[in-house]
Write a structure and sequence with these properties.
With about 270 residues, the protein is mainly α. It contains eleven helices and no strands. It is about 80% helix and about 0% strand. The protein starts with a helix and ends with a helix. The N terminus is likely disordered.
């Protein structure tokens, strides 16, 4: 295996042809931009068999397990990012629900819309560009729609729509925002109930997916060597990789059902 790796490195070095700019930069001791390094024509034809030989020289079961681990890591990272996005969206929607209530109270107190926006923007930075647009006589709903981009922006988009309705219909803006505030609070309460209902399903899916790891630890505790069994037998490694893939599919399926329930899809 060491010999094959050395041969592969040697062939890769021989096949690599630096660009003239790379040579000039190296001779002039300038910073080298790796993005400009090019490979000679036919390099892939040389490196592909070498890479295949290196993989074959390794333990095939180890390659399968490593691939399964890499896929699981990518899936876990993606799921973690989705969880952070959901949390950010929930925080933004709660913030918008509160700012609508405060803004409606400021308007009921008799403050002009631009002054009310400037006052509320001190507590809620998301309204700073909107307050600036209102102070310059700009389109407030358009500014709100611009701020609605990103996680949890649907609540700001609804605020923009309510503001637009008040402008076009001539209805009192404070009354429109009062009704919007009530609607937002009710929707937030329903969303929290749904999230609380689907949280056990998410947790159960993750628990079931991680149970095989505890099985490996249990086998090691009884004096066995399950890791060696997996790495020494290609069939066992394939079964483990298939099980890992199915576990990830199960977690993804539960997450998809839970996401649909939180969105209110039928």
């Amino acid at each position: 295996m060491t010999v094959l790796a050395a041969v592969g490195v040697a062939l890769a070095v021989l096949a690599w042809r630096p660009s003239p700019g790379w040579v000039a930069s190296s001779r002039l001791q300038r910073p080298i931009r790796l993005g400009r390094i090019r490979l000679a024509g036919g390099t892939l034809l040389v490196l592909a068999p070498v890479a295949g030989a290196i993989v074959v020289s390794l333990r095939p079961a180890l390659v399968i397990v490593a691939a399964a681990g890499a896929g699981t890591g990518a899936f876990a990272a993606r799921r973690w990012r989705r969880g952070r996005q959901r949390a950010a969206a929930a925080r933004r929607e709660a913030e918008v629900c509160e700012l609508v209530l405060v803004l409606a109270a400021a308007l009921r107190a008799g403050l002009p819309a631009s002054t009310a926006l400037a006052q509320v923007a001190r507590e809620f930075p998301v309204l700073v560009p909107v307050a600036h647009a209102a102070r310059l006589g700009g389109d407030v709903p358009a500014a709100l729609n611009h701020q609605s981009a990103g996680a949890g922006g649907a609540a700001l988009a609804r605020l923009a729509a309510a503001w637009r309705v008040a402008e076009t219909s001539g209805a009192p803006l404070a009354g429109v925002l009062d009704r919007l505030s009530v609607s937002e609070r009710e929707e937030r309460d329903v969303r929290r109930e749904v999230e609380a209902g689907v949280a056990p399903a998410r947790a159960t899916a993750v628990l079931m997916a991680t149970l095989p790891v505890f099985g490996l630890l249990l086998g090691s505790g009884f004096g066995g060597d399950p890791v060696a069994l997996i790495l020494d037998h290609l069939l066992v490694a394939g079964v483990v990789a298939s099980g890992v893939a199915l576990a990830c599919v199960g977690v993804w399926w539960i997450d998809r059902i839970a996401d649909a329930a939180e969105r209110g899809d039928a």
